[in-house]
Design a protein that fits this description.
By secondary structure, the chain is an alpha+beta fold. The protein has 6 helices and 6 strands.
Length: 188
């Protein structure tokens, strides 16, 4: 039976019982008022239980609420389970990506929309002496301040690449190329 149909039957049953109680005490409105208060108390109790369950986190099994509340809890629980599976799958993909890019001999940095450093591989860490978490969020143009790079970074993404001396050792030349991908992200 659909939850809303079951809830409509529950309301009908409460109204009938409330009217019968009102007839017995010779006050129909008082009987309906008691029924309404009971129905409201049931909803508030289930709402409180739902809130407590959600606060405990997705690993907890939902409380055994009846009626429409049981349906809501089970749907939320299924969504949480799907979300957990999705998160595990994404973590696995991210771990594989990081392992594969860490093995690359070329340095690689992921830059956000404003040029902030979001991630780097081991080669970039060694070449630019990047440290986490200190340098996460640092704008790349604060780290690489050579005029040719600044011009390339700010104005000339159509250039294939730019060569500048390393900010740490002038004897080392860095050949830099920016590749756009995703939503306003860049790979350097």
């Amino acid at each position: 039976m659909r939850p809303w149909i079951g809830e409509a039957w529950r309301i009908a049953g409460i109204v009938v019982l409330s009217l019968l109680f009102g007839i017995v005490i010779n006050h129909l409105l008082v009987g309906l008022l008691f029924g309404l208060i009971g129905y409201l108390a049931w909803h508030l109790t289930n709402l409180y239980r739902l809130e407590q369950w959600l606060e405990q986190g997705p690993k907890q099994i939902p409380s055994n609420a009846g009626g429409i509340w049981g349906d809501v809890c089970s749907k939320i629980y299924r969504l949480q389970q799907r979300n957990q599976k999705r998160k595990r799958r994404l973590k696995k993909i991210l771990r594989a990506f990081r392992e594969s890019t860490a093995a690359m001999p070329d340095a690689g940095l992921v830059l956000g929309p404003d040029g902030e450093i979001q991630w780097w591989n081991d080669a970039a860490q060694n070449l630019l002496q990047l440290r986490s978490p200190r340098d996460v969020g640092l704008r790349i143009d604060n780290l690489l301040r050579h005029p040719r790079f600044l011009h390339y970074f700010n104005d000339r993404h159509d250039l294939e690449s730019v060569e500048i001396p390393s900010p740490l050792d002038d004897r080392i030349a860095l050949n830099l190329r920016i590749v756009r991908y995703g939503r306003d992200q860049r790979l350097l």
